[in-house]
Design brief:
It is a single chain. The protein is an alpha+beta fold. It folds into 2 domains: 5-46 and 152-220 and 362-401, FAD/NAD(P)-binding domain (3-Layer(bba) Sandwich); 90-146 and 223-355, D-Amino Acid Oxidase, Chain A, domain 2 (2-Layer Sandwich), CATH 3.30.9. The protein has helices spanning 15-27, 64-83, 99-114, 125-131, 151-164, 208-214, 290-297, 300-321, 323-331, 386-401; strands spanning 5-11, 32-36, 52-53, 87-88, 92-96, 121-123, 139-143, 147-149, 168-171, 175-181, 184-189, 194-202, 221-233, 244-247, 259-262, 268-271, 275-276, 342-355, 365-369, 372-377. Strands 5, 6, 7, 13, 14, 15, 16, 17 and 18 form a 9-stranded mixed sheet that branches. Strands 1, 2, 9, 10, 11, 12, 19 and 20 form an 8-stranded mixed sheet that branches. It has a 3-stranded antiparallel sheet with strand order 3-8-4. Helix 1 crosses helix 10 (386-401) and helix 2 packs across helix 10 (386-401).
């Protein structure tokens, strides 16, 4: 089957893939095709997250997450200002409700300062309530550089700029096979059309490990999907939260715990929890996928992870089925919250990379192959850091693939 040849194909139309397409199209003299399996961009992790522009408070200093979050956050704020994208640098408070958690706030402040954050302040109870009158705790950390935005809107803006610079974007095209022959990638798709390229970048998110395997690699990680479920506060109770209220996170996990977030389009979101999803696009307990379950259960790291964290997993499952339990977790931060204040919200699925030892990968993970790059772990703050990650991918692609830079 004949196919039109491109210099580069990008698989995956979430914010990371589209940001990479934008940067590569603007800076390199290459023909680019981006393929997205769903009918629209940002259909999964990008479009279903809480819309928080993360500050970089939690990340290990020197990690790729810390570096790209710092650069990406400020670049993102500038982009929003210049392009008129609705956003707000509203700040957040991290609330300690016990003396043990209070001691952890100092370490969080140290990390934040090491990651270049400015204006972080430790607050006593009165200081906390000056920011969030209905919150309760023994101390808190105020982080002014946190913000909110709609990442689906941002992804669409990135896509428009990528297309203006010459990139082609196709949605509703799922890659089903990959053959490397005569120095070219030949991609089969579910629409019966074949695409060919000299180089390939995989930013397929929930399916990134599967795409890597289609391309002949055997990555030493497996994507395990974790569903995050949200509630929203009833409109008449939204006054209980001014901005963003977070708990002190459990350092064993890359999840931040249930929290309150004001959305850029209005309303207060509460959550998410973190429960094992039975399908990569498993947005409810009704969603089961035999292939995805087989992929999880056949991975030795899944069982090792389960052996270490089964108790926490059971607690999260209970919270998933019990609105009362969910409300109790929220009431640790805002005691006035009651079960009747919550109404069902949305859900998202996090593509969590787990290695053979059962470790949850905490940082970005990019694997190089012959004429290809695979982004195999892009956890939060990937959306916040998307412009910085796009630049990182561009720099690595230029070095690996020999792309020529545009002049001027």
């Amino acid at each position: 089957m004949d196919c039109k040849l491109r210099d580069l194909i990008i698989i995956g139309g979430g914010i990371v893939g589209v940001a990479a397409a934008r940067m590569l199209a603007r800076e390199c003299s290459v023909s680019i095709l981006l393929l997205e399996a769903e009918k629209h961009l940002a259909a999964h992790q990008t479009g279903r997250n809480s819309g928080v522009i993360h500050s970089g408070l939690y990340y290990r200093p020197g990690s790729m997450k810390a570096k790209t979050c710092r650069e990406g956050r400020e670049t993102l704020y500038r982009f929003c200002e210049e392009k008129g994208v609705p956003h707000e640098r509203c700040g957040k408070v991290v609330v300690a409700v016990t003396e043990k958690e209070k001691a952890q706030l100092a370490e969080l402040a140290r990390r934040g300062e090491a990651n270049g954050l400015t204006g972080i302040r430790l607050l006593d109870r009165a200081g906390l309530q000056a920011h969030e009158p209905h919150a309760e705790g023994v101390a808190a950390l105020h982080v002014p550089e946190t913000g909110i935005v709609d990442f689906s809107v941002l992804t669409q803006r990135f896509a428009e700029e990528a297309q203006v610079s010459g990139a082609e974007i196709r949605t509703g095209v799922r890659v089903t096979g990959c053959e490397f022959r005569d120095g070219l990638f030949h991609l089969d798709t579910d629409i019966g059309e074949r695409f060919c390229a000299r180089t390939l970048i995989n930013t397929a998110g929930l399916h990134c490990d599967e795409v890597a395997q289609l391309c002949g690699l055997r990555p030493d990680i497996r994507i395990i999907p974790f569903r995050g479920e949200y509630y929203t506060l009833k409109p008449e109770r939204a006054e209980l939260v001014n901005h963003l209220i977070y708990p002190v996170p459990d350092p064993r996990f890359p999840f931040l715990g249930v929290h309150f977030t004001r959305r850029i389009g209005g309303g207060i979101e509460a959550g998410p929890n973190a429960v094992l999803a039975m399908k990569r696009e498993g947005y409810s307990w009704k969603d089961w996928g035999a292939g995805d379950l087989a992929s999880m259960l056949s991975w030795p790291g899944f069982w090792r992870m389960g052996a270490k964290y089964w108790n926490t997993g059971l607690q999260e499952m209970y919270r998933s089925f019990s609105r009362r339990s969910f409300a109790r977790a929220l009431a640790r931060l805002v005691p006035e919250i009651k079960e009747t204040d919550l109404q069902p919200g949305g859900a998202g699925v996090r593509a969590q990379a787990v290695d053979r030892q059962g470790r949850l990968l905490d940082d970005f993970h990019i694997l190089e192959g012959k004429q290809m790059l695979h982004v195999l772990n892009a956890p939060s703050p990937a959306a916040t850091a998307s412009l910085a990650i796009g630049r990182t991918i561009t720099e690595r692609a230029c070095a690996l693939f020999g792309f020529s830079r545009r002049k001027g």
